[in-house]
Amino acid sequence: MPTWATTITLRGNGTLDDDQADEVVERLEDAHGTLSVGVGEISVTLDVDTDEGRSMFVVSDAEQTVRLALLGTPAFDWPLVHAELATAEEQESRLAEPPIPELLGSAEVAALLKVSKQRLAELRARLPLPLATLASGPVWARPAIEAFDRAWTRKPGRPRLLEAIEGLDAAERHRVAVSAPVEPLHSGVTPVVSALQLGAEQAAQRANAEYVRERDSSES
Fold it and tell me: Which end of the chain, N or C, is less packed with Cβ atoms under 10 Å?
């Protein structure tokens, strides 16, 4: 017989006092019920055992159990506004998860997305809303940024490889530029690789020129 962890939320006028809340919890003891009370709202989570093939009736069975426990209280006839159910195994898995997701600042978001901080600033308007903005800057939930990364086509802005190239020093960029030569764009200029877009090729050209200047300067 499957067991379902079911949450029933009712809303109305008034509230339950402490004695009424304690009595409701006692009535729900066999169903391992827990009660959350607010002004004009209560939420009850309880276990509902049901026969195979009766999962469609779990919510109605849970609501009936809750209303019986609420007899004699102001919340007895409050309307149902929300219901949620999960298998007992799923509920245990959820409870085992940390209540606060991993938080990321701008540096961690840039590293996860493999972009520079400058590119991250350009992307800011497209990112999910941060959970908070502190004195040190905004913070995001890691799952939200990971979801953004999966959906991001990366068409706007500069390609990842170009950003990686421009993060290297001149000598390293020169080695990248000459590691896979193709037909020169101009006399004496070797682009990085044919798969790069024009912007990356221009970066390789700049890297070559910068490397040559540094080399000539050190030799003179």
Answer: C
